[in-house]
Every structure is written in structure tokens, then in C-alpha cells.
Amino acid sequence: MLVLGVETTCDETAAAVVERLPDGSARILSNIVRSQTEEHAPYGGVVPEIAARAHVELLDGLIARAMTESGVGFQQLSGVAAAAGPGLIGGVIVGLTTAKAIALVHGTPLIAVNHLEAHALTPRLTSRLEFPYCLFLASGGHTQIVAVLGVGDYVRLGTTVDDAMGEAFDKVAKMLGLPYPGGPQVERAAASGDATRFNFPRPMLGRPDANFSLSGLKTAVRNEAARIDPLEPRDISDLCAGFQAAVLEATADRLGVGLRLFQERFGMPRALVAAGGVAANQAIRASLEGIAARARTTLIIPPPALCTDNGAMIAWAGAERLATGLTDSLETPPRARWLLDAKAQAPAGFANTRA
Ligand code: ATP
Ligand code: MG
Ligand code: FE
Q: What is the pTM of this model?
């Protein structure tokens, strides 16, 4: 099964061709990502209108390259998958409309993929992994603990009540004058910092639910930074290290609860898996090892390049849906918001059908 996937929900324009073999294993035949870092850097964050225009300009060329590199012709495709949301609506429209046009011209089934579902299923692209598993999804827009029970079958066990984890990294970077995109910058600065100099709050610690809160921590970093003048590189490193240490401790605590809730409701997970851009953070990856070991489960994290947004994850989620008989009509709408566990809450016009 050969699927073309396109990703345009935020500031990565991406296209990929992935093959799903009958035994459920995968081969990435091409995976081309063009980050719009330079376009947005002058503004210190993603500007939706600039992103949408860049997607329009870049996407056709990226799809052509992904097809050529894969050696697959449009006629050979079993499906065309696009991230139909959630995300910045201008970009989502570009990707979904392009995928619809390809589907229409070549008579290929369309698969409208939830971007979060694609993050959630990526570990099955890179590893042999059966359902159910416990997903820690930490990205620029989301921070969730999800029971992944099957393709299209997700139960959210916990979520952030305010900022997403990647958003908190980005905001901390910005307030300390580090360039956009901030997550990797904070990680780099933290590596040489003293995590004990500042004692930042560990939000939600000990709470019986599995929710996260990150905005108080972010504000605490801002308040400490405001007290230091001038802010030297040493201070920035220490602030980043203190912030990251607080994030790690909060994550360990919240995931501990999440894994316990998972076991109570669904039995032992086959693995703890992490996905989303924050899972590219080496300190977080290392701390997840300990969390998984304490819960006596294995840890699976896709390689960093597949944790951040890419086309292969969309193609793969499309292939997984196609393999279970799920395709979408050409009327399926782009969605700015789209909950992962929203089977019952799908908006009007949402036309997932079993073929
Ligand atoms: P969503 O998936 O929720 O729609 P998104 O697609 O923008 O949001 P991703 O591309 O999955 O998010 O991840 C980007 C986020 O990951 C950014 O907030 C970025 O700062 C963060 N991130 C990337 N690398 C690192 C890192 N090494 N350490 C911490 N955060 C990181
Ligand atoms: Mg991005
Ligand atoms: Fe993402």
C-alpha cells in the first residue's frame, strides 16, 4: 500500500511517500520537509498569513520531489492523505485542497488525517508496536496523555489546562531573547546551566488527575528573569536549566498518574510512547526512560526528525486508516479545531466512511 502524505497545519510544508506492507511494517520512500523558519523568524513566531502563502508557494514543488524521490507514480498510489486539522486554517486549506485535487485527477482515495492522530501513530511507523499503548503527546499546540487503543480509537487521559509544553519552551526562549524556534534553543542553553540556582514551581505535582499546567511556571521564569539586569548568558543558561528541570519533574509526576489511570481502565500498555516536537528534547527523552522503567513498560520514541512535523507521519496515518477501510469524501472540510478523541463530536460535514 503506497500513500502520499502532505502536512501544512503549521509552519512546516512537507510531503512524503510511505509504503505499508501487509504485515503492518512500513518503509519511508521519501520524506521532504521544508521548515518556514526564515519566513517567521523576524516576527519571533508563526504568522498565519505568511504561513498560508508559503504553503501555497512550496507545496506543489515538494510533492513533485517526494514523488520523484520515491520512484512511485501517481497512478500507483493507494491513497492521498492530508492533515485536515487541527491547525492554522489557511495552511490546512492549502494542503487538503491540494490532496483533494490529486485524488480527483487520479481517482485515488482521499484520507483526511487528524494531525494529532498522525503524531500518535508515528511510533508504529518506526517500531513494531501493537495496541494499546500510552501516548505522551507534547507539541507546539498540545500536551496530552492519550490511551491509543486502535486506529481511530483514542481516549484522552490528561491534557494541559493552559499552555502547551512546546509553547512554554517557545515563550521562555522569547522572553530570554533566544531566537525562534525556541524549544531547541532552550534545550541547548539548559545543557550548560545550573538547574539548582532557581527553584521554579512544579505545577500540578501530586494531583490525582493527569492534567498539566505550564503557564505558572512560564510566568515564574519571566519574574526571575526580570530581576536580573543585565541578563548574562550564564543567567540565561541557569534559567533554562531550572525551567527544563521543572518541566521534567512535572512530566514524570503527571505521566506517573496517567500510566496508573491507563492500567486501571485498559490494563498494561504495550509501551509508553512519546511524540510531538518536544519529544525531540534529549533531556526529556532521557527522563522518559526512567518513567517507563518505573511503570515496567518499554519506551518508544521516534527519531527527532519524525517527532517534529513531517509528511511521513501523515502518509503513515493515512495508510493505517486505509488499511482499516477508512477513507473520506471530497467534501470533507478543513478543521481549525479537531479533538483526537472526538468521534462523537465530529462537526457537520465530517464524512469519514467505512469503505
Ligand atoms: P501541534 O502538533 O500541537 O499542532 P506543532 O505541529 O507546531 O503543534 P510540533 O511541530 O509537533 O508542533 O512541535 C513543535 C514544538 O516542539 C515547538 O513548540 C518547539 O519549540 C518544540 N520543540 C522542538 N524541539 C524541541 C526541543 N529540543 N526541546 C523542547 N521543545 C522542542
Ligand atoms: Mg513547526
Ligand atoms: Fe505537530
A: 0.92
